[in-house]
């Protein structure tokens, strides 16, 4: 199964859907498509948002870990620290609930990193920016 659909030999609707279906059947709900992270929600609880999963993504580059919203959030957080520039994530969905879930878990990953590094001033900045 391909983690990044830009690596498919034949990039067409059939091969994209086939890849997404195979990944979903293995409960791999996240798949990259270039810079984008595509999610196929299972409408059931999966252990993909636990503290051990957060820890597995912390400090890792996107290419070092399987596709996940945590990899996107971690990348944005590290770019913010390294480049001292604002970062943003665009989360869009066909359903409001899925969009809210992705935003919440992406934020959770960033909060976890900030608190584990004991940098409350970064948490204050993040809370101000997300509530504007």
From TrEMBL:
- Pfam families from the entry? Myosin_head (PF00063)
Q: Which domain of life is it from?
A: Eukaryota
Give residue ranges for domain Myosin motor. Answer: 1-132
PROSITE patterns documented for this protein = MYOSIN_MOTOR (PS51456)
Assigned keywords, A-Z: Actin-binding, ATP-binding, Coiled coil, Motor protein, Myosin, Nucleotide-binding
> Do you know which SUPFAM superfamilies this protein is assigned to?
P-loop containing nucleoside triphosphate hydrolases
Q: Does the keyword Coiled coil apply?
A: yes
Record GO terms (molecular function): actin filament binding; ATP binding; microfilament motor activity
**A Gene Ontology biological process term:** actin filament organization
GO cellular component annotations of the record? cytoplasm; membrane; myosin complex
Q: What family does the Swiss-Prot or TrEMBL record give for this protein?
A: Belongs to the TRAFAC class myosin-kinesin ATPase superfamily. Myosin family.
The name on file for this protein is Myosin motor domain-containing protein
Give the source species: Coregonus suidteri
């Amino acid at each position: 199964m391909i983690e990044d659909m830009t690596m498919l030999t034949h990039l067409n609707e059939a091969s994209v859907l086939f890849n997404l279906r195979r990944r979903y059947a293995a409960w791999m709900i996240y798949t990259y498509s270039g810079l984008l992270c595509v999610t196929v929600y299972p409408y059931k609880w999966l252990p993909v948002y636990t503290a051990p999963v957060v820890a597995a993504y912390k400090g890792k580059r996107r290419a070092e870990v399987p596709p996940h919203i945590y990899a996107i959030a971690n990348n944005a957080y590290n770019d913010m620290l390294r480049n001292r520039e604002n970062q943003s994530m665009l989360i869009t969905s066909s359903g409001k609930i899925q969009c809210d879930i992705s935003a919440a878990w992406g934020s959770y990953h960033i909060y976890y990193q900030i608190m584990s590094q004991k940098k409350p001033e970064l948490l204050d900045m993040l809370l101000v920016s997300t509530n504007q």
